[in-house]
Amino acid sequence: MNKSINIALVGNPNSGKTSLFNALTGLNQKVGNFPGVTVDKKTGYANISDQFQANIIDLPGTYSLYPKRADEWVSYKVLMQQDVTVRPDMILLVADASNLKRNLLFCSQIIDLEIPVVIAFTMMDLAKQKGTQVDIPGLERELGVPIVAINPRKNKGMAALKKALDFTASNLQQTSPRNFLHSAGLAQHAVADVQQLFPEISDYTAIHYLINHEHFLLSNELQAEVENIELQHKFNPTKTQAEEIMQRYAKIKQVMLHTVVETDPLQKSLFTEKLDNILLHRTWGYVILVLVLFILFQSIFWVAQYPMDAIEWSFGKLAGWFSGILPGGWFSDLFINGILAGLSGIMLFVPQIMILFGLITLLEDTGYMARISFLTDKLMRKVGLNGKSVMPMISGFACAVPAIMSARNIENKKERLLTIMITPLMSCSARLPVYTILIALVVPSKLYFGFLSLQGLVMMALYMLGTVLALVVSWVMKWFIKSTERSFFILELPVYRGPRWKNVVVTMVEKAKIFVFDAGKVIMIISLLLWGLSTYGPKKNMEAVTAKYDALVQAAPGNVNQLNKERKTALLQASFAGVLGKAIEPGIRPLGYDWKIGIALITSFAAREVFVGTMATLYSVGDDADENSNTLRQKMNAAVRSDGTKVYTLATGLSLLVFYVIAMQCMSTLAVVKRETRSWKWPVIQFAYMTVLAYVLSFVVYNIFA
Q1: Is the pLDDT of residue 486 over 60?
Q2: When you count CB atoms within 10 A of the terminal residue's CB, does the N or C end of the chain come out lower?
């Protein structure tokens, strides 16, 4: 039976760490969260040899052992053995050979922790292209640890890497301590006193106890003793850190003189630099960016439409089949219109989620994602965000659910939270059915200059309204959301590379699983709740409706189909959802809405596109969507109030359009916001501010056009 060992996979961002993780573990991966923070915890299993099976923990990328962001703190605590859930037996450190000086800083710090380590050099081909030659055996002797050159994208060097891991795992107990830097020279007496308290730690680890002990898993007594050591020796963390970095770079320079041959970087202009001259151009860079985002945005519509249609068709057929074989009654109705409808609502989002994250992974793998963040940072920063916020916002045009999930790559907590709070204001594809029917209903079909459609201009204005409001809301919220975390936009522009398709597929599958199994639970609960509200009502009212239509059917059996449609509408009106609609009618009347629109506002909380289906039911339209799409518009157009005035005037239609642009009417989004923020506080605030803002602006629009 294989022994199991824990291997922490660490490295600088863009060093090829994710590619190595996927190459080692394949589909044997799990994605969760580290306790207390919304930072991805990726673990996977790999057979290292006949003797060992490795549990590989992919830690967030970090440049050094001095953390600033939440994800860096996660990596830091694991490496300091201060995370109770993850205790690595050894470290697999990924280093970019084409940026060796910067990567060796982190390597040297890891070595000085005195945890068994194996170094994997990536980007050797790029280093060679830059004219850099690395003497790996010589570097092994200088550092005192195994080094293996790999290319995980092409599966090169993986056998040699596993052999090095196997050898190190077999000799964990015999591994002798070695130091890249004699850390005791830094605050030597304070370090010695800390090691009296913790004899098992290295000199360098002792320095980190002095600097960050407040964040470590220590008793109050030990915290006080470390604090006393600091005061006694007048320990200065900033000065010590600066001295350490200077000494490390001096030693790295000596090591590289003996083991690395570099050509003058000015002698060779790389393909990446030439491409950046175009893609980061002050004019053409933005033109290309808009084109790329347009293609991304449209692809989510075009490509996802086919599987989404197939899912809808499949669930429709399934519901019809179950209707034919199940006996009538509440349980069948619950199964078909509650459980099956809820599952349909969950699965309908999966194609968009998979396609969006597949395309984002392509952009990340090729290196263009970093360029998008670079180009948009200036605008985003003015409203409290940063360049990394633009992708979730753009993705929100397709669906807010995967867009909010994609905000995880924003390191600053405040900027990430702001992005999550405003992304639902971007007009998602679920709003399109509402926009389409209401614009066709109240906006005249006119052409300006022979080609500009008034209806098309209104549609574009709705999308612009959501975008502008998102930026305004972010600007306002940045003054209220307090954060002591300083905002840095430090971005390394990686080289352009071809995508690793296996990585794309793995990411798509993992993101779909996260949505289905986490957000899906909340969606199902709310779907069942809405089914109950729409199916049941006060007993006396429901019985009265049933008795009335039973009598009408007996009196006119030839008109049974029409009467059953009217019965359905009457039962909905008498249900708890109908009662709620009637109850909120006085509150929504100032916006130009009646009780039927009130019911649609409630039911479309399940999903905004439910508005059209609710209207179809309320106006007794049949189930054949193709046959009755025009009939629905005609009946809505003919709808009148009790005083004989039209319901759907220009003022009411525009007011309703503005309401749907702004209001948070998507339980799936709220479920994901709760999951990402790990609290109900922010979904509640989000729902409240978006509802109030929607009400106020809809009221203004209604009174302007009334």
Answers
A1: no
A2: N
